[in-house]
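Q: Got a minute? One more chain.
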Amino acid sequence: MLLADRGYDADWIRELAVKKGAWANIPPKSNRSDPICFSSYLYRARNQVERFFNRIKQCRRVATRYDRLAGNYLAFVQLASIRLRLAARYESTP
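A: Always. Here it is, folded:
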């Protein structure tokens, strides 16, 4: 599923998503003449993804991408994700 904001509401983006085997859940622009299927319930999940990227970019190494190799960068993104998950888990524990 492709979750994007109104700025990505274009027919060619929707067609590309279908070719890749995904469903584009993009809110339609106000000037769109033909109705488009859109789920506001599924669109709320986009907010969680945006907040995750915002929190993960607090790590300077992720935000500036010091690593030259994609594998090393992915490994650090995974480590930062684990760190965020553990911090969230232990903050909520009384």
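A: The first strand starts at residue 2 and ends at 3.
Q: Perfect, thanks.
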